[in-house]
Amino acid sequence: MRRTHRTLLGCLLGTLLTLAMGRSGHAMQWTCAGGDTLCLRAAITAANAAPGTYADHVIVLGAGLFSFGGPDPSDPTSATALPRITGGMTIFGAGEDRTDLSLFPNNYANTRFFEVAAGGVAEIDDSFIWWNATGNIGDGGGILLLEGRLTVRRSTISHNGTAGPGAGLSNGGFMTPGHGGTVLIEASFIGFNTGDYFDNVTLT
Predict the structure, then answer these.
(1) Nearest by Cα to 94 from 128, 142, 45, 131
(2) Distance separating alpha carbons of residues 61 and 136, to the nearest angstrom
(3) Is the C-alpha dihedral spanning 176, 41, 76, 111 positive or negative?
(4) Is residue 7 one of the residues assigned to a domain?
(5) Confidence (pTM)
(6) Which of 48, 104, 170, 184 has its CA at 20 to 30 Å from residue 156's CA atom?
(7) What is the DSSP string of the chain?
């Protein structure tokens, strides 16, 4: 009997959590307070698994620094701070001068911030992506795009690094022909990134 009560309580809490994580004119919405990196990783994981399009899954980030100490620990093959984006999602910051997506002040070597993988569709708005780098393990210090679709609006991608091309944003098609994605950049600044060549962005 006690076990039944616990099961029912668990289901109720799960339902309440789903509602709290949100429906606000979208199929699903997650809201993460400024600096809550665990929430951001969990939101991306959930959005990857949820049915629907990038417009159906909205992640809202508060003002503050979202700083990671290294790659996503759930994926030992990853060189990216967040889970690879394989589903659809839109990520809204509080403003490019208010929401910082960065490994600062940690050692940023060998860790990029975002990776949009094959089949992934992501929009990143109103954010500042900086102080991330992949060292000599690959291109795309800030963002790596591989066969997915990426939109960046009202954001800054700056002071990222790599030993390869596209320190700020790299379309994987440059190094691996046939594996590039589709990129749309609007009302954004990409500059002051440092790579061996094509410092700021590679788009193919």
Answers:
(1) 128
(2) 30
(3) positive
(4) no
(5) 0.84
(6) 48
(7) -HHHHHHHHHHHHHHHHHHHH--SSSSEEEEE-TT-HHHHHHHHHHHHHSSS-TTTEEEEE-SEEEE-SSS-TT-TT--BSSPPB-SEEEEE-S-TTTEEEE-TTS--TTBBSEEE-TT-EEEEES-EEES-B-TTS-S-SSEEESSSEEEEES-EEES-B-SSB-SSEEETTTTSTT---EEEEES-EEES-B-SBS-SEE--
**Alpha-carbon gap, residue 143 to 139, rounded angstroms:** 9
What range does the domain containing 175 cover?
22-202
Q: What is the mean pLDDT of residues 63-75?
A: 94
Tell me: the pLDDT tens digits for 152-176?
A: 999 999 999 988 788 899 987 555 5
Q: Are 126 and 96 in contact (CB under 8 A)?
A: yes
Q: Is residue 16 part of a domain?
A: no
Distance CA 192, CA 178 (A): 28
- Residue 73 has which token pair? 């620990």
Return the number of other C-beta atoms located less than 10 Å from residue 126's C-beta. Answer: 20
CA 153 distance to own-chain centroid: 14
Cα separation, 199 vs 164, in Å, equals 8
Q: Which residue has 């700021």 as its token pair? A: 200
